Amino acid sequence: MKKILSILAVLGSGLIQAQVPEPTSSFKKTYLATVSESILSLGNLGSTQTYIDGPLVSVPAEPVTSQPIPRFSAFLHFGEQLHINFANAIGMYTGFGIRNMGMINRLNDSIKVKQRVYSFGVPLAIKVGDMGKKRYAAFGAELEFFFNYKQKTFLGSGRGEKVEKFNEWASNRTELLQPSVFAEFCFGKGKYLRIRYYLFDFLKQGNQTFKVNNVTHLWIPQQSQLFALSYGQVISKKRK
Predict the structure, then answer these.
(1) What angle is formed at CA 85 by the lines to CA 234 and CA 97, rounded to 5 degrees?
(2) Handedness of CA 159, 213, 216, 52 (dihedral sign)
(3) Residue 208 to residues 16, 25, 58, 66, 110, Cα–Cα distance (Å)
């Protein structure tokens, strides 16, 4: 009799466990995350036209199709994010970040220009996926303030010789406020991939110059579209 009761107890326990559903992944309703990233960016200038500026004359050169060069940057990229999850499948985040963004272009056979900004941005994104496992897709927009501009000019083929370097605060060479849209894919364990496109031209028309041997050259890009691909990592997080 005791053996029969023992067998029935084991079977009953198994049935009860079988009827209990597996727990879903738990998620935090709110938390803060500190993030950093590496960025690969590319700028498209289309055709450009250069002028040699002087006190009496401005000599134009023939328009030339510029050659974009990918730009990689790992410093300084820092962000603080506030995540708010409404359910395990949907949430949002906002926050602020500092980013080093720019482009490299060869204007002709002999001139290469590197341009970058430091920006302060505020993003807003909607997340869809598994908030508990932090595997989701995020779609959003960001408004950035370009507060510091740097330019380097190189003369010659290949790497070339650096002939000019300067930086400006709140420069009139770029738009100070720049909106962008992005799609982000988070793979869990704090790692993510983000694609970004800036809605306005990176450079202002008519404000672009470089110097070679103390001679100022004005150059006018047809456009200045900027794209970026970044790989990021959450470096710290805490529950709010």
Answers:
(1) 40
(2) negative
(3) 74, 53, 14, 14, 17
**Fold type of domain 28-239:** Porin (2.40.160)
pTM: 0.81
Q: Which two tokens stand for residue 131?
A: 């908030």
Measured CA to CA, the distance from residue 213 to residue 218 in angstroms comes to: 14
At residue 232, does pLDDT exceed 90? yes
Check residues 22 and 90 and name the one with the higher pLDDT.
90
Q: Which residue has the tokens 């960016």?
A: 41
Please say whether the beta carbons of 198 and 180 come within 8 A: yes
pLDDT more than 70, % of the chain: 83
Instruction: Quote the tokens at residue 154.
Output: 């190189």
Residue 240 to residue 231: CA distance in whole angstroms: 25
Beta-carbon contacts of 200 under 8 Å, excluding residues fewer than 6 positions away, are: 175, 178, 179
Domain locations along the chain? 28-239
Burial class of residue 150, CB neighbours in 10 A (0-12, 13-18, 19+): middle
Decide if 186 contacts 134 (C-beta within 8 A): yes
